[in-house]
Amino acid sequence: MKNIKIYIVTLVIAAASISCNKVIDLKLANDSGKLVIEGNITNVEGPQYITLSRNVPFTSTNTYPPVLGAIVTVSDDEGHTYPFSEDPNGTYTTPQMAGIAGRTYKMTVVTGGVTYTATSVMPAAVPIDSITSKNNDFDPKKNRKEVSIHLQDPSDVANQYRFILWVNSVQVDAIFAFDDEFTNGRYVNGDLVENATDIYPGDSVRVEMQCIDKPMFTYWVTLMNQQLGGPGGGVAPSNPPSNISPACLGYFSAHTTQTVSIVAK
Amino acid sequence: MGKSLLFILFLFIAIPVFAQKKFTLSGTIDDASTGEKLIGATVKIKELPQDGTITNSYGFYSIPVPAGNYTLLYTYIGYNAIEQVVTLNQSRVYNISLHSKSELNEVVIRSNKPNNDNVTSPQMGQEKLNMAQVNNVPVLLGEKDILKTISLLPGIKSAGEGNTGFYVRGGASDQNLILLDEATVYNASHFFGFFSTFNSDAIKDVSIYKGGMPAEYGGRLSSVLDIKMNDGNNKDYTVQGGLGLISSRIKLEGPIVKNKGSFMISARRTYIDFFLHASSDSTLKGSSLYFYDLNAKANYHFDDKNAIYISGYFGKDVLLLKNTFGTNWGNSTGTVRFNHLFNNRLFSNTSVVFSNYNYTIQDFQSSNYFKATSQITDVNFKEDLQYSMTSDHMLKFGLNILHHNIAPGSITTNSNSNFNNESVEQRYGYENAAYLSDEWRLNNKLTLLYGVRLSGLFLLGPGTFKTYDAAGNSLTSQTYASGSTVKNYLNLEPRFTASYLLSENSSIKFSYNRNSQNIHLLSNSTSSTPTDLYVLSSNNIKPEIADQASTGYFTNFDDNNYEFSAEVYYKWMQNQIDYKDGAQLIVNPDVESLLTYGSGRAYGVELFLKKKFGRFNGWVGYTLSRTELKFAAINNGRYFPARQDRTHDLSVVGIYQLNKRWTLSSDFVYGTGNAVSFPTGKYQIGGLTTFSYSSRNGYRMPSANRLDIGATLEGKEHKKYHSSWTFGVYNVYAHRDPYIITFRDSKTNPNTTEAVETSIFATRIPSITWNFKF
Questions:
Q1: Domain B2-113 identical in fold to domain B227-773
Q2: How far apart are CA B354 and CA B375, in angstroms?
């Protein structure tokens, strides 16, 4: 269903086929130095990572200063506490843990005299069945491909999914977040529609599927909708609603993860 | 408060009833060659310069005057005036036929006696489009378009390049009421907004009220665009049409019974898809991309006192990618009107109006198969009366019972599909209104137009209705039986306008009006996508309310050749709607939980200079304005510029008749860019560059400007037929107006980011159309 908008946007742009693109210079304010927390707890046994950094102005290079010296812990609703230790690049790690479905995880970050907290519930894992490639609907001539994911959505609960796509080991610059509002209990064949990277036969394709909780779905889908832009600008973009308080950039997500790879054909 | 206001109103009106008994002059004014009733034609009495009237929507006029000898003057723009000497010792009916100055060439030529209605009329904030000018203004791909032409007037702004959406005095595009023969047109655009649903061949009269709203109109905050279809020629059969680059059109009209009844049928269809069908590619061959319109109208005048009009519109857009995806949407409207003259001073019109807008979206790919539909259906009963009580008082009153049925959305699928069948409960409601207004000429300088409109919304069951807290959590849920009342809102809307003549050719006017709106468009896209979703005011959504005060100076000079006006307005808006992050509006039963409410203010100055007559005519319109919104949840609760906030807006339109056959035209537009949110910083999330924002709509798209030119070549005069060619070039100097600006990692230097501007129509677009009439 969410693809409707992509279809319409693509068709409108295609219809106005006399369109053209140009890189331009814009004078933008310098918004920098704001704390960014990216915390992930997965169901895979191993190190878990929480990254602290700061944002930089639009005109800077894509390197983000790390935030060092913070105290980072994660606890769950069964009384376990996991301390995270600091790496030089601003990544905080706990060596060995696995999130368990149904548990609520709480992240606590103390930095600059402020305590930031966030909670996230790890959903039950839904197994991904397979991924396949097929002709891109809008570009069958050039033999461009599109990746589809296949899974059985459980009917008893509301599910939210996030997918991450790599083509030839490079992450595609697109966000994919779906829920089962229209697909609850169905066998789902979903397309990862994107315009950032062209996929051709022979390309190696990897997909990570995450089962995420509802606040994280809102977070990712807000970012996804902003990416679409849409004619004349679409929704007014803003920072997505973070589950961290006091508010800062970033999120804390407890989610399950699985990865599948194929060669596009 | 309401009752006392009504009482005062009646008091004003009651006084003059005791005045001296008068006779009544009444009748209709029509076009001598086609029998089309003329709307807004002027009747003046030389001996009583302060008295006078204009014809209503059905060409009817009525004016009570004392016994005496008079010279009546009937005038209408572009027509030869008629003088009539009368000895009035009893009430008289004069049905007048005026001859067009140039029956072939529709260019406005100086009439015998240019009038100064714009100065003397108490109405303000109203713009009327002259269809002859619409036909000459150059437009994209040569598709004459009233919506694009009105956006060249001050205070009315186009929603974007090549877009028929428009904003009036800072209002959102759903705050415009668009009426076609009294029927609401919910989606006035074809092809995602590049063309309007109004085929100008079928249109007789276009008025837009952006302020000083008369009491007979209501239901929207910002404006009423009142469009009336041609009645059809009641003297002769004619066929006219045109072949254009993207569409062709044809119109048939003629008498049903000569001088008593006539019909008009007008159709338009695009033909890009014929090229698709000719394609060798099997996908393209099976694909569709077209729209069509059909306008039809018939009328019959039983006698001088009774007439019936039946009109309808049907339009559809179809877009289909074979085996992949399809969408179609369209409006249909139908109006039956019955005019009755109770006596020569009391005119009534009874209308039954039907309106429907629906869309379907389909995905044909087996696993994605679904069909989503949505529609809104209105049935409206209207009774409008007009009473020429004395020469000083003209009363209008009436009532309106409008039933809405909204089917917000349902999805049907099959067993192979990813999707489930879903359906959102239909909603039912009545939007009812009663109004009373009086146009009172106190003396030959001061005229008041005042009235009141009482509007009510009655949201009815059946259905389950929830209330939500600010965070969107459901608080209560209650199920109602069919026909039981869920929620009522009543709004009293005062309307007041005063005009004071400073001299014969200049006046100042003041107006205040309150408008309320109970049907709201939810769309988090700015373009006209077909997936428009309408909701009624409810437990959660309160009626939108706007109060507008405006004042202006109006003057004509050089013997009424030129018209100049300056208007200032200030508008306060309450209960405005915006969306929460990630709002999913399509087929969502809890859509009201995704809304957030705030207020707004809009103010500005509009300057308008128009040369009305002569070989060279046209206008310059300039608006300086500001529109700001305030929502607790957005921009830290501070005012931010609305998307449609446009500081400067300039339009210049010029039409020059070179000689008998050639007419040249040109328009130039300049406008401040839309207010948008650009990133002020960036960070990395999920392995991707992500942008951070510090304020809502804190930046501007680059300003937009464009020059279009056009030329019309009239064919040689011929007894049996007439033809003409229209040539146009859109965007003469190939200006790149940015359509959208996106931000991404640089393609050339991936460790940096860049802003990318996408423009459409960034090149000269020529067009050619051949028109014929026989």
A1: no
A2: 13
Measured between beta carbons, the chain A residues lying within 8 angstroms of B191 are: 15
CA B30 to mean position of chain CA atoms: 25
Determine whether the interchain pair A173/B689 forms a contact, defined as Cβ–Cβ distance below 8 Å. Answer: yes
Q: Which of A3, A36, A229 sits opposite B683 (nearest CB)?
A: A36
| Three-class DSSP labels, A27-41 | CCCCCCCCEEEEEEE
Q: Does B321 contact chain A (CB < 8 Å)?
A: yes
For domain B2-113, the CATH architecture is Sandwich (2.60)
Alpha carbons B334 and B180: distance in angstroms, whole number: 9
Please give the residue of chain A at the shortest CA–CA distance from B140. A16
Interface size A-B, in CB pairs within 8 Å, comes to 246
CB contact under 8 A, A20 and B759: yes
Side-chain-side CA neighbours of B279 within 13 Å: the count stands at 14
A54 touching B, CB under 8 A?
Answer: yes
d(CA B751, CA A60): 9
Rounded Cα gap, residues B215 and B218, in angstroms: 7
CATH fold of the domain at A35-121:
Immunoglobulin-like (2.60.40)
Q: Which of residues 89-128 of A touch B (CB under 8 A)?
A: none
B275 in contact with A at a CB cutoff of 8 Å?
no
With an 8 Å Cβ cutoff, is B531 touching chain A? yes
- Are the folds of A3-20+124-236+256-263 and A35-121 the same? yes
Question: Residue B569 in contact with residue B211, Cβ under 8 Å?
Answer: yes
What are the domain boundaries of chain B? 2-113, 227-773
Q: How far apart (Å, rounded) are the C-alpha atoms in residues B554 and B118?
A: 7
Closest Cα in chain A, distance from residue B698 (Å): 10
In chain B, which residues have their Cβ closer than 8 Å to the Cβ of A196? 744
- Interface check for B679 against chain A (CB to CB < 8 A): the answer is yes
Q: What residues of chain A, 29 to 48, have a C-beta less than 8 Å from chain B?
A: 29-32, 34, 36, 38
> The pTM is what?
0.88
Judge whether residue A177 has pLDDT over 60. Answer: yes
User: Is the CB of residue B633 less than 8 Å away from at least one CB of chain A?
Assistant: no
The CATH code of domain A3-20+124-236+256-263 reads 2.60.40
Residue ranges of domains in chain A: 3-20+124-236+256-263, 35-121
Closest to B584 measured CA to CA, from A190, A120, A7, A220: A220
Architecture of domain B227-773: Beta Barrel (2.40)
pLDDT along chain B (774 residues), means of 10: 51 48 86 88 85 88 89 86 88 89 45 64 81 74 81 86 80 92 90 81 90 92 93 91 87 92 93 71 74 94 93 92 83 96 93 94 82 92 94 92 92 83 91 95 90 96 92 91 94 95 92 95 64 88 96 90 94 91 77 92 95 87 95 90 91 90 91 89 91 89 89 85 88 83 86 86 83 86
